[in-house]
Amino acid sequence: MAILNVDRYYPCCHPFFERCNNSKYLEKTEIEGFGGNLILYKRPDLDAVTWHYRAKIEGMKGYVRRSTKETNFELAKRKAEQEFIENTGKFKNNVEVNITYVRTAIQRYLKHISEKKYYIDNSQRFRYVKNTWYRYMHGYFGDMKVSEITEAELEGYWHYRRDYYVKGAGKELMASNKNRVNAKTQTSRNIKVRFSYGTARAEASVINQFFAWCYDSRVGLTSKVLKTSAKDAFESVDVNKKNRRPHFDEKDWRIVRQNLKNYAECKGRFEVKYDREFVNKSRFMMRTFILFLGSTGMRLGEAKQIRWKDVRFDKKQNAIIVNVDESTSKVRRGRDVVAHSTWIGSLLDEWKEMSDFTKDSDLVFYAVKENNPDTQNVCDVSISFKNFLKEIGKLENERGKVRTLYSLRHTYATLRLEAGVEVYNLAKNMGTSVQQIEWHYGHVNTKKIVGDLTKGGSLKDTQKAKDIELAAEMITHLRDGTLDEKAVASALKNIAINK
Q1: d(Cα 180, Cα 178) in Å, to the nearest integer?
Q2: Who's near 332: CB < 8 A, 6+ residues apart?
Q3: Residue 307: how many other CB atoms lie within 10 Å
Q4: Distant-in-sequence, close-in-space partners of 495: CB < 8 Å, separation ≥ 6
Q5: Quick check: helix, strand or coil at residue 220?
Q6: Contact 418, 448 (CB under 8 A)
Q7: Of residues 446 and 287, which shows the higher confidence score?
Q8: For a Cys-Cys bond, which of 98, 261, 323, 445 suits 310, CB 3.0-4.6 Å?
Q9: Which of 20-24, 216-220, 339-343, 487-491 has the lowest mean pLDDT?
Q10: C-alpha angle 431/434/436, rounded to 5°?
Q11: CA–CA dist 131, 199 (Å, integer)
Q12: Rounded Cα gap, residues 36 and 417, in angstroms
């Protein structure tokens, strides 16, 4: 016998409720001992056999209406009394009383996070959460009752997700995408049918944050914490295989740096004949941004939010230090990031002279709109970087994996490990755990650590040796085009003054 759940199909303002409220109750019976707040009745618009109840909980707006699913009066009365007591307790403890479906809860959740500073400042992240949810998760979770979702159902999402572009809703999207109506082709053949481990991690994060909100005491939609992991989407052997992040090895990274200099100066294959001043400025910023990521290993979202007040030169330690505010950190923890090379400071100084935004509170890296050139927006050079990599033949690594801006974080981690940096210090600088470093970069060849473990305390520890090492580094950057003569001279001057 089908029971219509009005919360599932109609909002509270729907005319259906008016019809229910105005319709005649059959065998309306007030249950004693509840002060007129609990009545049993039958509904003529349904089967007129099953007992329903209407409860008025003190302090709660509106009524709680439920079917007892019982045709026997005494059984229905007992169930109504029991649920009245349970719902009263829920309401007093700020737990949701009425049945809430995921499709309703997600609307409340998106409204909630849209008003948070982090998502206001990171509109791209908000769009990603919203679009990803409605593209993938909504089709699976949407019609589920939040309070009744089990761990098994949560794990079942990955089975649904694996089939999404094979026999699910995404199959039609592959053939015809309504969002590409004015494009050259209407198909979405660039979509990967089999998602990567990184994609699974990102989606797991979206799911977990939603269910964490559902469990929050002020929301109270669930009585337990629901959590999933990207590992649930793959066999362990696949996880290890898929977790090898695309990055640049030392040789390719040198080629990228050399070409970036020509790119910023519009030389050779990167020459342009239009609006050269604007192009030079935007390209110089992109070059600085890429080298900044490669020198700090910061997350992309963190680097985009860096402001001039966050960057400082520590004379005592002869190091560029960048403050990451907890509000922009993915893990909600602030930290100081030490740049690998001091020359990045000279590059930032040069960029500041060119930038139109140089106040302490201004973004270091930014974008502007044509109709509003006086207002900064968060920069997005991902497409430009991909096109640049295509031009120099370095878009894919030797395994055919496409490199992106995020590959710079992996490049930083890999090269630092190969250089013998201690794992704990690297994890601290990158704002992650030692376990994550070992998980993602355990395959890195760290043979230089052997030299670090066996070296003696001779010339290596003297100030003279440190000066020679820094000078040699400057010469290397001069040769490969990463720095010009002016920048090298400035860096060497800083070393001499602040040693």
Answers
A1: 5
A2: 326
A3: 18
A4: 318, 342, 467, 470, 471
A5: coil
A6: yes
A7: 287
A8: 323
A9: 20-24
A10: 80
A11: 14
A12: 72
Tokens of 345: 């400071």
Residue-level pLDDT at 278? 84
d(CA 5, CA 66): 8
Question: Token digits for 118?
Answer: 């982090």
Strand 366-369 and strand 335-338: pairing? unpaired
**Amino acid identity for residue 132 in this structure:** T
Rounded to whole angstroms, the Cα distance separating 415 from 441 reads: 10
pLDDT tens digits, one per residue of 290-312: 999 999 999 998 999 999 999 99
Out of 19-23, 104-108, 244-248, 476-480, the most confident range is 104-108
Exposure letters 202-215 (e unless 16+ CB within 10 A, then b): ebbeebbebbebbb
**Mean pLDDT rounded to a whole number for the chain:** 81
The CA–CA distances, whole Å, from 76 to 84, 85, 253, 384 equal 12, 14, 73, 67
- Asked if residue 460 has pLDDT above 50, the reply is no
Tally DSSP H helices, then E strands, for the chain.
22, 9
Amino acid at 306: I
184 near 111, Cβ under 8 Å?
A: no
Burial of 311 (0-12, 13-18, 19+ CB in 10 A): buried
Q: What is the DSSP string of 407-455?
A: HHHHHHHHHHHHTT--HHHHHHHHTS-HHHHHHHHTTS--THHHHHHH-
Whether the predicted pLDDT of 237 surpasses 60: no
Q: Where are the beta strands (DSSP E) in 153-227?
A: none
Distances (CA, A) of 92 to 78, 87, 105: 22, 9, 20
This model's pTM is above 0.85: no
Q: Is the torsion defined by CA of 257, 299, 409, 316 positive or negative? A: positive
Could you tell me where the DSSP H helices lie in 216-304? 236-242, 250-264, 276-296, 300-304
Instruction: Record the tokens describing residue 87, joined without a space.
Output: 């719902």
- pLDDT for the residue 459: 42
Q: Which two tokens stand for residue 39?
A: 């009545």
Per-residue pLDDT reduced to its tens digit, 391-439: 999 999 988 889 999 999 999 999 998 888 888 899 999 998 887 787 7
How many CB atoms neighbour CB 135 within 10 A?
14
Q: Which of 209-213, 305-309, 466-470 has the lowest mean pLDDT?
A: 466-470
Torsion angle defined by CA atoms of residues 186, 187, 188 and 194, in that order, rounded to the nearest 10 degrees:
160
Highest mean pLDDT among 277-291, 326-340, 446-460: 277-291
